[in-house]
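Dear Dr. H.,

I hope your travels went smoothly. While you were away I took the liberty of generating a structure for the chain from your last submission, since the lab meeting agenda had it listed for discussion. I wanted you to have the full record in hand beforehand rather than looking at slides cold. The sequence, exactly as received, is reproduced here:
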Amino acid sequence: MAQKLPQRIQELEAFVCLNDVPVTPPFRRHKLQGTFENYFAININEQYRLLFQQKSRNNIITNLKEIKEIEIIEVSKHYEKGK
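The corresponding predicted structure, in token form, is as follows:
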């Protein structure tokens, strides 16, 4: 995990926009729902994921090609038992 997280952040920085981040593994970019409806996540590994949102939240952008800056919110163990 300690090696994979910085690698995944570097990979994210290499993409021009959020639309360029693959929806297929290993990234598996997906939009969250419910409480986190304006958040996105990507896989770090099989257990952990990186949650983020567009940096400027004054104007929520729906076109992923226009989202060029993100803010990382948290790293979570999404499939931990008891959640």
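Two observations you may find useful: The chain has one helix and four strands. Helices lie at 4-14.

With kind regards,
E. W.
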